[in-house]
Amino acid sequence: MAAAHTLAASGPNQTIMSGALLLAIPVAMLGGLVSFFSPCVLPLVPGYLSYVTGVTGQDLQEARRGRMVAGAGLFVLGFTAIFVPAGIFFGALGESLREHQSTITNVLGAVMILLGIFFMGLMPWLNQREFRFHRKPAAGLVGAPLLGALFAVGWTPCIGPTLASVNLLALDGGNPQRGAVLGVAYCLGLGIPFIVAAVAFRKALGAFSWVKKHYVWVMRLGGIMMIATGLLLVTGVWDSIVQDMQVWTNRYNVGI
């Protein structure tokens, strides 16, 4: 009976509060934030907001805040509906390959390092192209979720390296639930700035201008983050940190 109670108490912690997840969540959120500030997303934010709210041009600055937030929120829900299932898929795939975990971790680490180098623009022979859809959904709140979904499917590889890094962490974790959580974390990092821009559009334009002047550092930050994570995976330091965090989290069980 006592053993059953311990299992029931520790189960949620192992799934939701594992060391691997605690370490990966901030990485996933930062990846989403870097994706938002990338050169092929940030300049288009006013256009996205205009499209999903049905308000054009200078009228955006005078648009009702509620409509702006609603449009941005529906847009975020649209790409979340694509990215989260992707995280679940990679988590499930990692679970089925758990017996090869050590090899997978090393390979994923090497791939993440290459993605970081690519994201920093150090592979100029690879063009950053995106697949765009010529037919767009209707402008306004009704079409906002669909536009978000099309954004998720087509806006690669600009956000591809950071998104791939998050999915690689889900694959390494080998758990569909963790993959879903990391997908949500990535979407929060990418989506919250959209919401903030909708709430304070005028002030956001000033901040965006500053970021545009420092694009190279945004890209370097994202690349360094991916390279550092890849090195942690390849060298085994990631697993060591995860084990230490697992010991710490297991001390705090949910009482029943």
Features:
mainly alpha, disordered N terminus
Can you describe this structure?
The two termini are 13 Å apart. It is built from 11 helices and no strands. Residues 1-17 and 127-131 have low confidence and may be disordered. It has 256 residues and is mainly alpha-helical. Helix content is 74%, strand content 0%. It has helices spanning 2-16, 19-36, 45-53, 65-96, 101-119, 144-154, 160-173, 176-199, 201-213, 215-235, 237-250.
Total of DSSP H or I helical runs spanning 4+ residues: 11
Number of strands: 0
What order do the SSEs take from the amino end to the carboxyl end, as H and E?
HHHHHHHHHHH
Compute the average pLDDT: 75
Give the low-pLDDT segments.
1-17, 127-131
Q: Major sheet: size, sense and barrel closure?
A: none
The separation of the N and C termini measures 13 Å
Strand content: under 5%
Shape: globular
Helix content: over 70%
Structural class: mainly alpha
Q: What does the radius of gyration come to?
A: 20 Å
